[in-house]
């Protein structure tokens, strides 16, 4: 999988968040999008995910050397962010069954395996609305990382996680991302320590 950004810029009203971003991301690989708050990290990640439109420029997605049609992008990308909305009226089991009804689960895993990996077995029948912020973040990470997609986009993945949650995140990264294209938007080294390429958003101001 390859993603090309050609002259990507984003403006909110009269203010340019970033200008003329020209980048390429190739699988397998791990990339970090870095910069202080307000630098446009999360916005750029959402543009790459196809969730938000750029003001100027274009994105090209290639799979096995062939351009990927926009309507097929959904099945190639998994995304998570602290602001991501999930159906909190669902229990954990209901949410995972719903999610994996339209996305493929990581090969060799079952929904029960995902529940066990999160460490939330005792809460699997409780509404997600009753979870703490750290528990909700584990659910958000799990639905992304344990989806069988070639591209994984992580926006500040350790937000609200305690030390145990951070160690859990590191274990998942090391076991389930080796052959994927991973892009992390962050300013916390714990979240992108494994990335061998870095993009500084300050360079596009």
What does this structure look like?
The chain has helices at 41-48, 92-99, 111-118, 133-145, 163-176, 189-192, and strands at 2-12, 15-26, 29-34, 56-63, 66-67, 77-80, 151-155, 181-186, 197-200. The chain is of the alpha/beta class and 205 residues long. It has a 5-stranded parallel sheet with strand order 6-7-8-3-9, with helices on both faces. A 4-stranded antiparallel sheet has the order 2-1-4-5, with helices on one face. Helix 2 (92-99) packs across helix 3 and helix 4 (133-145) runs parallel beside helix 5. The chain starts with a strand and ends in a 5-residue tail after the last strand. The mean pLDDT is 95.
Biggest sheet layout:
5 strands, parallel
How many strand segments? 9
How large is the count of helical segments? 6
At the fold tier of CATH, the topology name is Rossmann fold
Helicity level = 25-40%
Question: What is the overall silhouette?
Answer: globular
Helix/strand order, N-terminal first: EEEHEEEHHHEHEHE
Number of domains: 1
CATH homologous superfamily designation? P-loop containing nucleotide triphosphate hydrolases
Rg from alpha-carbon coordinates? 17 Å
Distance between the termini: 28 Å
CATH class: Alpha Beta
Strand content: 25-35%
What is the mean pLDDT?
A: 95
Which keywords apply here?
four-stranded antiparallel beta sheet; 27% helix; 205 residues; Rossmann fold; five-stranded parallel beta sheet; single chain; alpha/beta; 6 helices; 9 strands; 28% strand
């Amino acid at each position: 999988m390859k993603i090309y950004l050609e002259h990507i810029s984003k403006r909110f009203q009269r203010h340019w968040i970033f200008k003329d971003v020209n980048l390429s991301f190739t699988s397998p690989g791990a990339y970090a999008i870095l910069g202080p708050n307000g630098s446009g990290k999360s916005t750029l990640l959402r543009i790459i995910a196809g969730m938000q439109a750029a003001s100027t420029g274009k994105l090209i997605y290639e799979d096995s050397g062939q351009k990927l049609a926009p309507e097929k992008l959904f099945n190639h990308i998994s995304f998570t962010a602290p602001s991501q909305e999930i159906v909190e009226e669902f229990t954990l089991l209901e949410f995972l069954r719903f999610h994996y009804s339209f996305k493929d689960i990581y090969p060799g895993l079952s929904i029960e395996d995902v529940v066990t990996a999160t460490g939330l077995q005792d809460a699997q029948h409780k509404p997600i609305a009753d979870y703490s912020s750290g528990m909700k973040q584990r659910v958000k990470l799990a639905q992304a990382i344990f989806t069988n997609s070639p591209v994984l986009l992580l926006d500040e993945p350790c937000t609200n996680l305690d030390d145990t949650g951070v160690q859990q995140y590191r274990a998942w990264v090391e076991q389930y991302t080796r052959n994927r294209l991973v892009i992390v938007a962050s300013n916390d080294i714990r979240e992108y320590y494994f990335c061998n390429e870095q993009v500084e958003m300050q360079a596009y101001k």
